[in-house]
Amino acid sequence: FEILEETSGRKVFNGKVSLEKSSSLNDEDFYNKNYNGTNVYSCDFSAFEKPGKYRLYIEGVGCSYPFSIKRTSLRGPFYKMLRAFYLQRSGIDKKPPYTKQRYSRAFHPDDGTIVYSSNTPLEGTCNGFRGCDDNFIDLLAGKTERARVNSWGGYFDAGDWDRRIQHLAVSNALLDLYSFFPGFFSTFSLNIPESGDGLPDIVDEALWGLDFFSRMQDSDGGVRGGIESEEHPKYGETSWQHSHEIYAYAPGVWSSYLYAAAASRASWVLSSVDSSLASRYRQQAVKAYAWAEHRYAKKDKEYSFEVIDARNLASAALYRCTGEKKYDTIFLKTTVFTKHDMPLRKDEKYEQGDAAWIYAGIQDRDVNQEVWINCRKAIIQQANVLLVAQQDAGYKWMKDPARPPFAGAFTIPLAKEIVWAYFLTKEKKYIRGAELATLTGSGANPLNMSYITGTGYKSPENLLHMDSRITGQKVPDGITVLGPLDNSFLGGKDNPYHKIVAQYCYPEISKWPVIESYWDVFWYPMMCEYTIDTMSSNIYIWGLITARDNFSETVGRTSQVKSKE
Predict the structure, then answer these.
(1) Which end of the chain has fewer CB atoms at under 10 Å, N or C?
(2) In sequence order, what are the residues at sequence separation of 6 or more whose Cβ sits closer than 8 angstroms to the Cβ of residue 48?
(3) What are the b/e assignments for 33-44, b being 16+ CB within 10 Å?
(4) Directed axis angle between helix 75-87 and helix 168-180, to 10°?
(5) For residue 269, which phi and psi values (nearest 5 degrees)?
(6) Contact criterion met (CB below 8 Å) for 437 and 397
(7) Cα pseudo-dihedral 73, 79, 84, 85, rounded to 10
(8) pTM score, two decimals?
(9) How confident is the model over 223-258, as pLDDT tens digits?
């Protein structure tokens, strides 16, 4: 292969095409699958670093799209991905000068929206972790006529208008990114209404999501798990035209612990930026935690592992934030890392990765040395599992080998551990892994498509974004769709979406390579939808590699962990 200058066509580099993955090898994950349907080859020109605009050329095959080599190449896509959170906001007008699109304010009490209280907490529904097929039946079973004022804000989730406690993943990710690279993000403008208010824009965006749940905190400290409509949106109605009744979940132990953890994280980050705000969130976190602890102590049956994990996470975050030993005591009582060689998660048993990361990053408090070391080792072990699995993937997407091949498996790396492992070890292999993990989603795939809207030479135009669909506007930039999937995991020919699409495809779509099985169809949500959670996962990896040129700066406290081994 050759690298050619875009303007002159002059050859500036050449190298050898290498076989990356044979089509005969069915070992890309635990499912004994090969998702490519053909041999996959790679062209490594990482040794060529001269800034400019180029094409990759292979005789008899053709040329790539033009691409740039420059230090700031990734900032454009990353900027759009961060801005996409603003465009998912509820309770605010979105219009120029902040965006070319126009979306009216939705779900705001000043416009007549009434949110009623439900007696059902989020964890008691299948939007929490109770198994069922109906998202609304449990919420509606507990509905009341008690109106709850000031329940506005947060982020819409994909094609729906719900806002649930799981969305705090956005605030957590953005606050972490700022703590990693405060110098970089202090000057990274997002052109949002809060720009210029004295806080970095990435922190302002993090607080937008957090403040919704701050408003959902009752006077006694309990935090409601969010709000939900009585049914999915009516097709034809924009978010600001909604006609369903709206309900707030009852305060819950799980949601209160999760809010305590996120508010503690905000307080810790803000302590060096705005001490008044830091104090406010710390007080809310302490109050939410105390409320949850009171009810946890009165439990009449064993709580599920999700609640125990949330308690563990909140305890770690509050100990880091306040230094009060009682939180450390509860963390040590509930952590799995008192034992050696425990993984970060076990299906249906526990998920304590975030808590391990917080505890592993504590520097200015006394910690249990053995647990501290075990947390570090578990993070590095999982990061290495991801790197090994990545080498088995032809296109170098990154997923846990047990992760099913749908719901963003090829376009959205769920790989926070890669970022954590870098900051714990400073080993460049984790940077390399993070870079490779973004390739399939940003255009290095057989369709030559960036799955991030508004980036690359072509990207999805018909994602399931109701407000743009109904108003006839261009979809927001910066959203990564769920992308290609292995339809055999979703019922194959019995999948109703499969039946619809199959009418228009040849050959029969079960014969298509999985990595090429993407159709830009609004009504195919498992391909063309997205979630706030997946957006936050993507931003974590992209944030690392976009800010990587700033590693020489004085970085945040989290990244200055020194080994105590």
Answers:
(1) C
(2) 3, 12, 13, 69
(3) ebbbbeebebbe
(4) 150
(5) -70, -40
(6) yes
(7) 140
(8) 0.95
(9) 999 999 999 999 999 999 999 999 999 999 999 999
128: how many CB neighbours lie within 10 A of its CB? 23
Burial 57-66 (b: 16+ CB within 10 A, else e): beeeeeebee
Buried b or exposed e, range 371-392, using 16+ CB within 10 angstroms: bbbbbbbbbbebbbbbbebbee
pLDDT range class, residue 549, cuts 50, 70, 90: low
Q: What is the amino acid identity at position 48?
A: F
The closest of 207, 205, 184, 206 to 195, measured between CA atoms, is: 205
Eight-state DSSP code of residue 116? E
Q: What are phi and psi of 62, to 5 degrees?
A: 135, -165
C-alpha to C-alpha distances, 159 to 138, 234, 480, 557, nearest whole angstrom: 21, 11, 14, 37
Residue 509 CB: number of other CB atoms within 10 A? 18
pLDDT tens across 133-160, in order?
Answer: 788 999 999 999 999 989 999 999 988 8
* Cα gap 280→295, rounded to integer Å: 23
What distance in Å separates the CA atoms of residue 77 and residue 561, rounded to the nearest whole number?
30
Radius of gyration of the chain from its Cα atoms, rounded to whole angstroms: 24
Q: Tell me the three state secondary structure of residue 486.
A: coil
**Whole-number Å distance between alpha carbons of 4 and 93:** 46
- Encode pLDDT of 402-421 as tens digits: 999 999 999 999 999 999 99
Residues 192, 173: Cα–Cα separation, whole Å = 18
The letter for the amino acid at 364 is: D
**Gap between the Cα atoms of 131 and 111, Å rounded:** 35
